[in-house]
Amino acid sequence: MNSKVVLWLQHHETRLFHFVNQRIQHHFLDHFFTRITHLGGATAAIMVSLCLACFGQGSLRLAGLQALIALTASHIPVAIMKKKYPRLRPYLVHPQAITHRNPLTDHSFPSGHTTAIFSVIVPFVYAIPVLGLILIPLAGFVGLSRIYLGLHYPSDCIVGCLLGTTASLLTVAFWG
Fold this sequence. Notes:
Layout: H1 3-23, H2 27-36, H3 42-55, H4 59-84, H5 90-93, H6 112-127, H7 132-148, H8 154-174
């Protein structure tokens, strides 16, 4: 890619990161994002999917199984990309970045939390489309929380969204 284009993209991504991470800071958002971000963590994603796979009925049970498969499949490219593209987390690059409790130190690209939440929600939205009214914005807030908390750049979350959604759509198509 042309170096001017890359520099332009990096500049604007950094500006967007600083806007979300510093300009929209608010006490309410601090509490909201530090809690909602955990929905994309391994514990929540695995527990919700596993509980519904084991104890759900009908389409919810199938969606739980599909979510587990998609969650597993989506994290293979995440692990590969984190090794191949060792991008430092924004708070390590930008000293003025605002971080909250226990900032991560592994690589930033792509966002595993965003990948996880999108890989888990898609089968449930496919099974019960009206859930999309709640689950899609919820997943978007998880991705936004990663930027707000200083842990990811916007492109980390966008790629995570694409990886999780793609893994889920393929899983639903093949195990539907």
